[in-house]
């Protein structure tokens, strides 16, 4: 007899109390921070779904590895374990450790991307976009049309739009495109996976034109599992093999090990081009550290090396994807509009559908996120016009294509009853959506404005 319940493939070995701020305390925190949830103290949050980045629980094997790590400045054993694990999983020849994903991006782009060039991606994550733009280049999103429709049930909504990509490459010419990127899973587009078929097609387009192709591989294992579940012919293939094929179709990757590295800190750049790797290492030494630690402690390298193996455990991935789907199914069954189908690491509420009376210039996603916190102490993250919109010269707002609220689920961290509580709060807030009002952004910095901007309520 096999039973249908998918259980957590671990038992809890160490626990941490969660805070329980009162509603008055939450109101005061919102007031103090201008309704920007990034400003909250973690002690003011009951369930923290702000991000799945670096917030997961590590295994006892990881903690043990950390204790026995080698902190030598050069040539440490922990570095070699890290390097060999990354090579074995990705197949890339050169591994450059970095303190997190954005450092890998900055190093790669500062070496390979010039002002006036264009970098296509399915959807650039905020730091990726900013790191392209800071070079004076243009970050262009070329995701398939279905990705823009939250209700569409396409199994691979992270796919790059190949005809549009080809048209862009034809229009701009090879010299204007230093690389093509693809984010797996497509975080800013709802955590949606990219199919192997699509990666093969993009790879062929890039190789035919001699343009390097890089994966933003933060959630490569979740993407590989979703390929196994959803792509015809892949069900019986080991997830490690699917991941290996994904990497083999590209020439390198940037990686935040804070996601599918199952670590609290770490990242890397891995690539086949030896000349490019050498230049990247030079920048690394300048800004991150010697090439055998790259801004990480030996114990971080150990934790990532072990985490990269653990993340490919099929039992873990089955549970991980099932638990995200569980929250998605519960809120969708209650009629809450979400990005469909459920992605790998998060459930994305569709604030445009939930608050049709609030225009993008009044940040419907932020309004929902603020209310989830006020009502239930849940911290989520707006992925909409506050994050990806822009203020034009004339002071008007250029909106983002989608208004989403991301409930990112830290790995191996929250129990099913905690997730049931989240569903209850979401369903309650959605039932009162008609009462929610928009916000005005009253202060904003030049780059990555969502981290530090302030909002004020609109009194209409
Ligand atoms: N690329 C993607 C797709 C990401 O999701 C992130 C981080 C990065 C790059 C940058 O990595 O944080 O290690 O520097 N995403 C986090 C999030 C912050 O909440 O989704 P980093």
Descriptive overview:
The protein is of the alpha/beta class and 460 residues long. The chain has two domains: 23-45 and 313-457, Alpha-Beta Complex (Aspartate Aminotransferase, domain 1), CATH 3.90.1150; 60-310, Type I PLP-dependent aspartate aminotransferase-like (Major domain) (Aspartate Aminotransferase, domain 2), CATH 3.40.640. Helix content is 40%, strand content 13%. The protein has 16 helices and 16 strands. A five-stranded mixed sheet has the order 2-8-7-6-5, with helices on both faces. A three-stranded antiparallel sheet has the order 9-14-11. It has a two-stranded parallel sheet with strand order 1-10. Helix 2 runs antiparallel to helix 11, helix 8 packs across helix 9 (239-248) and helix 14 crosses helix 16. The model has no long low-confidence stretch (mean pLDDT 96). Bound molecules: ligand F0G. The site of ligand F0G has 15 residues, from helix 4 and helix 5.
The CATH architecture assignment of the largest domain turns out to be 3-Layer(aba) Sandwich
The CATH class assignment of the largest domain is: Alpha Beta
Sketch the major β-sheet. 5 strands, mixed
Query: What would you report as the Rg, rounded to the nearest angstrom?
Result: 21 Å
| 3D shape | globular
Q: Which hetero ligands occur in this complex? A: ligand F0G
Secondary-structure-based class equals alpha/beta
Give the count of helical stretches.
16
